[in-house]
Specification:
Layout: E1 11-21, E2 28-39, E3 44-48, H1 55-62, E4 70-75, E5 78-79, H2 85-91, E6 95-98, H3 112-122, H4 127-140, H5 157-169, E7 175-179, H6 187-204, E8 207-212, H7 215-221, E9 224-229, E10 232-238, H8 239-244, H9 249-257, H10 263-278
Parallel strand pairs: 3-8, 3-9, 6-7, 7-8
Antiparallel strand pairs: 1-2, 1-4, 4-5, 9-10
């Protein structure tokens, strides 16, 4: 592990640059250019932006799944920008992820119990302790204990995402990267899963780096919000301020793009968004 770095925040991203090099022509595409942000212990930072804005790339870089071309990522006082595989294995105790698609993120051949015990076994936790931990995880995400004997295909999308959340919680991490974790769910299920995230944070003190394209979602879940556009942050601040009185034109356009249940209000929003785009 790298020497400890004083920084205060649980996660600190400093001037992060991520470039992807095309195989055929060797040209680099810069997905992020000089992004800086931080997440405190027990806090939720929402990253919001449209597809291609770079928000998911930040989460992937934190997880070691995207190359860090410049800047650095400091987690729990240690520079993890170039962490090797062995270091990442150790980091997995404190740094976990919940992906977007609950259908593809779970192994269909493993029972729920095997899925939840797998990260425990990797860290040397087995036997009765692992079984007790699995039962407690199912309780925590409001699934019946007999779920451990069933396969993922026997559950709905919302239930599968609860299983994925339980797996992320298995090692009692300090930070979970949530990459569009409710976008594949219907609106009513979204609300229940978001409430579960809030409940788990209050109970465990875990921090979230929460990626979403929907300002209404990040308003519900986040303490602070960073708005991404074309690989850079255009606005950052308290969630209530950014999502209700945005200062940047792009943030205002995102707010108008968020769906609302009232057809008349939705039509008005679309008209206002077209006017803003034309302007």
């Amino acid at each position: 592990m790298s020497p400890t770095i004083d920084g205060g925040a649980l996660l600190r991203v400093e001037d992060l640059v991520v470039e992807f090099r095309a195989k055929r022509f060797g040209r680099a595409f810069r997905a992020l250019h000089g992004v800086s942000l931080h997440v405190a212990a027990g806090e939720t930072l929402g990253l919001v932006g449209e597809s291609g804005s770079g928000k998911s790339t930040i989460g992937r870089a934190v997880l070691g799944l995207a190359p860090v071309s410049g800047g650095r990522i400091v987690f729990d006082g240690r520079d993890i920008s170039a962490a090797d595989r062995a270091t990442r294995r150790v980091l997995s105790r404190d740094l976990q992820v919940v992906f977007q698609d609950p259908y593809s993120s779970l192994n269909p051949a493993l029972t729920v119990g095997d899925t939840l015990s797998e990260p425990l076994q990797v860290q040397g936790i087995g036997g009765a302790e692992a079984r007790d931990r699995v039962a407690a995880l199912l309780d925590r995400v409001h699934l019946p204990r007999d779920a451990m004997h069933r396969l993922p295909r026997e559950f709905s999308g919302g239930q599968r995402q609860r299983i994925a959340i339980a797996r992320a919680l298995a090692l009692r991490p300090k930070l979970i990267v949530c990459d569009e974790p409710v976008s594949a769910l219907d609106l009513s299920t979204q609300a229940r899963v978001l409430d579960l995230f809030l409940e788990l944070q209050e109970a465990t003190g875990v921090a979230y780096l929460f990626v979403s394209h929907d300002l209404d979602v990040v308003r519900h879940i986040s303490h602070r919000v960073a708005v991404l556009h074309r690989g850079g942050i255009v606005e950052q601040g308290e969630a209530s301020q950014v999502t209700r009185e945005p200062a940047h034109d792009y943030t205002r356009a995102l707010l108008l793009a968020s769906p609302v249940p009232d057809p008349d209000r939705q039509a008005e929003r679309r008209a206002r968004r077209r006017e803003a785009a034309a302007g």
